[in-house]
Here is the input.
Amino acid sequence: MILSIEGRAFRILTIIDEYTRECLAILTQRRITSHDVIDQLFYLFIFRGTPEHIRSDNGPEFTAKAVRSWLNDLGITTLFIEPGSPWENGYIESFNGKLRDELLDREIFTTLTEAKILIKQWRKEYNQVRPHSALDYRVPAPEVIIPLTLT
Here is the structure.
């Protein structure tokens, strides 16, 4: 997703879990390279486990040889959607539409830092507060609170 602040473009990389609908990561930067994608996925694989496959569009950061080779070395299948066929990647398209409708179209970002902060706050609300009809009106990643025990 490409947006603009003061005439300068910035990009947003969104990663969701198709099963839980949880937004696992949102990266907001002026440029997103294949190494940025690998860094995000590496972090997720370490803390969430390695998936069987990854579905993505045909953006240059995902089709880069470095990303494809790295995923292949890990035994992860890549499922690329056909160009011009967003319905093949309906979960992320739906998510991106909600991000655009609920935040990006309503805000005027003056700096990249401001955009990063507001997008991070929206992601937390999306995952931990906002009910999802596909999940029987539950949240994808409810906040876990461990009660203090008095001794």
Summary: The chain has five helices and five strands.
